[in-house]
Design a protein that fits this description.
Helix 1 (19-35) packs across helix 6 (178-185) and helix 7 (191-214) crosses helix 8. The chain is built from eight helices and six strands; from the N terminus they run H-E-H-E-E-H-H-E-H-E-E-H-H-H. The protein has a six-stranded mixed β-sheet with strand order 4-3-2-1-5-6, with helices on one face. The longest helix is centred in the last third of the chain and has 24 residues, at 191-214. The protein starts with 18 loop residues before the first helix and ends in a 25-residue tail after the last helix. The chain is of the alpha/beta class. The chain folds into two domains: 36-185, Creatine Amidinohydrolase, Chain A, domain 1; 189-254, no CATH class. The protein is globular. Its cofactor is Mn(2+).
Length: 261
């Protein structure tokens, strides 16, 4: 895909091909079994939980949801409150989604059937999250679970979505092996990942150029920030951003994270 050189051309979106995540999962399982070959025949599975919605203090408003990065990498799932499993014996991918209420549907729109998630995200099976323990015990007959736990080398912070559920103490749980394999796997991009990165980089570059073209003496910092955010959203559908826009003039430009507070 390409980002637009001129807004007059209209807009262009980059449709995500979820077969990208199928390839990523296959690569991760292969790398994991190369590192831990004993897991191949031990009724073992990789289990991850995605992010959850966060309320804004005591209000009835939630922060805009951003998926947990490792879960996004493996499954590409946009919805909060999900879990995912990779069976290391069969290499099948299983997605678990929330069982939503009638009230949720009233406020947020139609509830999608399990078949939608299976087809859309290109996984092998889909169940509700409240069925996780039963599926592990009765269908997959798993004995060992590899769950995500580790420390981000840049931030120094630990992962916050380490999988747990009622009955997890019945399994042998490994919290050390998965994180380094996933972190290393994310370094090496597939061709589909690189296509997506090229699109986003081109779009971001055009937005920076657009800001430079539109800036004039007397304009405020918020004008430049607004121009950038509008450009990437209007021309490429980029609603979310990796970090808060850093747009400082004069002395403010010396602050690396200016604008975050």
């Amino acid at each position: 895909g390409r980002a637009l050189a001129d807004p007059a051309e209209g807009y262009e979106l980059f449709p995500i091909d979820f077969s990208m995540h199928v390839q990523i999962r296959q690569n991760v399982v292969q790398r994991f079994l190369q590192t831990h070959p004993e897991a191949q025949n031990s009724a073992a599975a990789i289990l991850l939980h995605g992010g959850v919605e966060l309320d804004r203090y005591d209000t009835d408003i939630q922060y805009n949801f951003h998926q947990e990065s490792f879960f996004q990498y493996l499954f590409g799932v946009r919805e909060p409150g999900c879990a995912g499993l990779l069976d290391l014996a069969t290499r099948r991918a299983v997605l678990f989604v929330p069982r939503l209420s009638d009230e949720w549907e009233l406020w947020c729109g139609d509830r999608k059937p399990l078949a939608y998630f299976k087809a859309h995200y290109k996984v092998d099976e889909v169940y509700y999250v409240d069925e996780l323990a039963a599926v592990l015990a009765d269908k997959l007959k798993a004995k060992k679970l590899f769950v995500l736990h580790g420390r981000n080398s840049d931030s120094g912070l630990e992962t916050t979505t380490t999988s747990t559920f009622e009955g997890i103490d019945q399994y042998e749980v490994d919290r050390q092996a998965l994180h380094p394999v996933l972190a290393e796997s994310r370094v090496i991009k597939t061709e589909k990942e690189m296509e997506l990165l090229r699109f986003v980089n081109k779009l971001s570059s055009r937005a920076h150029v657009n800001v430079m073209k539109s800036i004039r003496p007397g304009k405020m910092e918020f004008h430049a920030e607004s121009d950038f955010l509008h450009y990437v959203y209007s021309n490429g559908g980029a609603r979310f951003h990796a970090y808060t826009c850093i747009c400082g003039s004069g002395h403010n430009a010396s602050a690396l994270h200016y604008g975050h507070a």
